[in-house]
Specification:
single chain; alpha+beta; SH3 type barrels; 5-stranded antiparallel beta sheet; 5 helices
Length: 164
């Protein structure tokens, strides 16, 4: 739909370059008020369970009473929904398992020498403390670093010193 039809104008709306830039500025400013980060709306290309239920309810609401949805179709859609629920639960469980394994791995490095990368710097030291959770961190040389930054773990401090 263009501006002319939206305004019920039979002739196209002609704007001067100044008017056009003012309108563009107004639209840009208004959009920034709606989305201060300027990142825009992120679209999701996959359907979730809420979307699936909305589609199913809409189908059931608007079906022709003289020719209702076939049992096979309904059962197939419910099976798809059940599969979607199971996959969502499994993905959530895998995320929890990954976080737990990362936390255990970080904890096992306590007291050991490590080498980690932060930007362009390579930092070496002994793990003095570990935080657990979804994103475990290790305390090395008085600063906390994400466990994902660790690239090497040494068996003990002697091996760490010998490798330098």
């Amino acid at each position: 739909m263009d501006l002319s039809s939206a305004l019920n104008v039979s002739q196209p709306v002609m704007l001067s370059s100044t008017e056009r830039s003012e309108v563009e500025k107004f639209v840009r400013d208004h959009n920034l008020k709606l989305d201060p980060t300027g990142t825009g709306r992120q679209t999701n290309q996959s359907l979730g369970r809420d979307d699936f239920l909305k589609i199913l309810i809409t189908q059931l609401s608007y079906q022709d009473p003289t020719s209702p949805m076939q049992d096979k179709e309904f059962i197939a859609q419910m099976a798809q929904f059940s599969t979607l629920e199971q996959m969502t639960a499994m993905a959530s469980d895998f995320n929890k398992l990954t976080a737990m394994l990362m936390g255990n791995e970080a904890s096992s490095a306590l007291g050991k020498g490590v080498e980690l990368i932060e930007g362009d710097r390579v930092i070496q030291g002994t793990v003095q403390a570990v935080t657990r959770g979804d994103f475990p961190q290790v305390l090395v040389n008085g600063a906390f670093y994400n466990w994902e930054q660790v690239v090497k773990v040494f068996a003990d401090e002697k091996e760490n010193v010998a490798s330098y």
